[in-house]
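Subject: Protein record for review, amino acid sequence with backbone structure tokens
Why sent: The fold of this protein is of interest and is recorded here as tokens.
Enclosed: The protein record, placed directly beneath this head.
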Amino acid sequence: MNKIGRLALRVEGDCWNAYYAMPDTMKDAIWLGSIQMRFVADQARKDMFMVLMVEAVADLIEEATGERPTMAERPAPEHEKSGRA
């Protein structure tokens, strides 16, 4: 059975990068998009970026499985929570 991936958001340098990654690793993650941190300081823009990236991940999963997922917020794995990448 194939694992379903997740949306991973990481601060890297001056950008907030979004990836499609497997549940417990960033190995072979697919880069989806990026936005400068200064723009996501505004909560409305941060929310818009997150919605766009969630939809991108839902599209990838739907293409692979034929079903659109319902996305639930889940905390990042502990090893990914340590500040900037």
Notes: The chain has one domain: 6-80. The chain has a mean pLDDT of 86. The longest strand covers residues 6-12. The two ends are 31 Å apart (CA to CA).
